[in-house]
Amino acid sequence: MKKLLVLLLALCMLLLPVLTACKDTEEVPEDTEAEEATEADTSGLDEWGRPVVSIDVPESLDFGGEELHIICRNEDYALVDVGDFEEQTNALEQQLYYRNFDIEEYLNIELVYSYYDPTTLNSKLNSTLQKDLEADLKTYDLVLNYGTFGISALVRDYYVNLLDPSAVPYMDLSKPWWNKNYIENAQAYGQLYYITGDYNLSTYNRVMVTYFNESLCLSYGISENLYEVALDGGWTYERLFEYAKMYDDTNGNTVKDANDVYGLLSNANSEAYDGFLYGFQLNFVKTYDDGAHGFDIAGNLKMEDAMSKIQTLYEQDGVWLIAKTEGAEKTSEQQYKMFAESRALFDIDVIYRYKAQNLAFRDMTDSYGILPLPKYDSEQKEYGSGVQVAYTICSIPRYSNYNGDMVSAFLEYANGYNYRTIRPYYFENIVKKQYFSTEDSSKVFDMVLASTDFDFGEIYAQLINQVNNLVWRNVAKNGGTVSRAWAENETVFRKKLIELDNWFYSKAE
What is the pLDDT of residues 319-329, one digit of tens each? Predict the structure, then answer.
């Protein structure tokens, strides 16, 4: 029966271009086809040049139609992970629909979803899960949570250690569909309770980049090929600083407003500051040989200088910052509309914030592209890149009789499936051909993904007295120095980090 349905699925995939051509959707070009990774005869590589890797989840597994209940964050942009769309309005959503159908059939399970707000440590999602876990009701099998708030103390004591093979027998974290950098930086003392992988497309969507308006740059005298600059390793803070000086009072009212043209646009709620933290390859926390953690802030001259660079950059007239510049709005809507309306040469933002932003960019009259986050200086060898804190993490709740076989089989198969089909389809057919339609932008996109990094201090910042806010964002936005912010909060920072390390260590005993 499984093989028959897989054949039917393949037939549906072949028919997909015909079906989608009949719809007026925003993500399907005329020549779009549903692509699946194909194994090369001799090279061991698929058609996208990646290793062909088997998904080692036995076809003989049969969970008897049992429900696998996922408690999820309720933001629309995170639906791209679970693929639970009431109606499939574009090719990617149809791909995800067929993926879920295939997974359910392969494992003989039924996927069920519950959605809650995830946007604080004490969120509805976390509090609902906490009550269920404390009562051992076993309502939920899997948690898909908001990255920076999913590590809440409300629920962390109830999660399965994902590094314990006996707890998750079908998960193989050496496989390429698991985010190795996140795994390395989220674990401590052999304990890992959160993970992200290719199943979580929303994590890739939150990667930060520098957008640039190619047409506008030419109009204002930037003649150098910025793609070549970036690909040759020359996209630095110094270059961006010079371009960000540009300001044109286009309406002639002598007042800075959203109708003028700016050299640089960003969002003071996050990306304007976090982007440089990653671009400059700075971390709040370091790991010692014995597994313990310590801060890398006190006496960090590079971090101090980096803060000075950012403050100087954003003091220029050619900058418009959401939630900071006088007259600016507080949310990202104004940001994406200004860039889409050709009101900025450069814009530091995420790959995909939500559908309205994406559609606005793709409807632009001017051509646009992406660059990495700028380097600290020309001596920095590689670009740095990071994920805005709204990425998705997965956890397995540890009830007294949780089904580790079923949940680990699902996670392994779903991530492996996305690695082989959904991720390359999304990146190659949609992101590269529709979001960024030039070959050079595609090369930059690949470079950005390869340089994406996580930091233990950023992952667990909410449990370390919000170190990212107090030492970085608040100082960049409101003035001051890193050293002063550190001195004012050092005692609490150290206390909270020791408590976090002790918690991890206690779980390892």
Answer: 999 999 999 99
Comparing CA positions, the residue from 484, 456, 469 lying closest to residue 181 is: 456
Three-state DSSP at 7 gives: helix
Interior angle at CA 257, CA 256 and CA 260, nearest 5? 85
Region for 388 from its dihedrals, namely left if φ exceeds 0, alpha if ψ lies in -120 to 50, beta otherwise: beta
C-alpha separations of 136 from 140, 145, 250 in Å: 10, 20, 62
> Three-class SS of residue 253?
coil
Each residue's pLDDT tens digit, 205-243: 999 999 999 999 999 999 999 999 999 999 999 999 999
Could you tell me where the DSSP H helices lie in 280-380?
301-314, 332-340, 355-362
Closest CA to 367 of 436, 445, 440, 442: 436
* 3-class state of residue 388 by DSSP: coil
Q: How far is CA 248 from CA 153, 358, 410, in A?
A: 49, 26, 54
Q: In this model, does residue 508 exceed pLDDT 60?
A: yes
Position 167, amino acid: A
- All domains of the chain in start order, with CATH: 2-204+389-435 (3.40.190.10), 208-386+450-461 (3.40.190.10)
pLDDT reading at 280 higher than 90: yes
pLDDT mean over 167-176: 98
The bridge status of strand 208-213 relative to strand 344-350 is antiparallel
